[in-house]
């Protein structure tokens, strides 16, 4: 089985790729595809999934803190 990848997109969503189970707060399973995006801005009308509502309204560019 390959490793699940979560990518923090600049000014956008969290892109999830791989075999993962997504649950709501009560443990109910969301139906997902092998690759999907989760909302990070709070503007989506399809939460927890991203619907592109962030475009032009959300800025965040997270980077790994590379300490030496």
Automatic annotation (TrEMBL):
Domain Iron-binding zinc finger CDGSH type: 15-60
Swiss-Prot/TrEMBL keywords: 2Fe-2S, Iron, Iron-sulfur, Metal-binding
Keyword Cell membrane: no
A single GO molecular function term of this UniProt record: 2 iron, 2 sulfur cluster binding
Domain of life: Bacteria
InterPro entries named in the record: FeS-contain_CDGSH-typ (IPR018967), MitoNEET_CISD (IPR042216)
Record Pfam families: zf-CDGSH
Name of protein: Iron-binding CDGSH zinc finger protein
UniProt organism field: Neobacillus bataviensis
